[in-house]
Amino acid sequence: EPFGDPQLGKIKAPSCVFCHGQTGIAVNPSYPNINGQNASYLFQSMKDYQNGDRKGPLAEMMKAQLSRLNDEDLKDIAAYFSSQK
Amino acid sequence: EPFGDPQLGKIKAPSCVFCHGQTGIAVNPSYPNINGQNASYLFQSMKDYQNGDRKGPLAEMMKAQLSRLNDEDLKDIAAYFSSQK
User: Fold this and answer.
1) What residues does the Cytochrome c domain cover (chains A, B) (predicted)?
2) What is the pTM of this model?
């Protein structure tokens, strides 16, 4: 079953692109490339940031970025970046 | 400057391949693909696992996998998977 809607994900991910790039190729080598990454892994990583299972300065920033997104939003965003080459 | 030695990384990463695959393409969609991932990001992720900045069952397993590796090992392993297509 489709994991999320990539078209919706692109709209819901305005702030991600500042670090992860328009199509998921990171603007800086200390951030991960997420183009073509597994959607369920991306979703779980974002959940880990939301629930504090990842610590550290970048983790705090990610938690803030994701604070207003629900699970469906996260699945759409995951589907978007996962679908990028 | 080269971040690590991919040839050495391949030898030092015998257990990684069981989940991340021979060349970094995960055997299961809930694990990340790490082929072509940014080496410094991979290194920092492994350090986060070592120092407990990542929580959860998979994080505990990763911490155990990485427990006997030093920073140079991690840089070599990061270089190996980062160099894979």
Assistant:
1) 4-85
2) 0.87
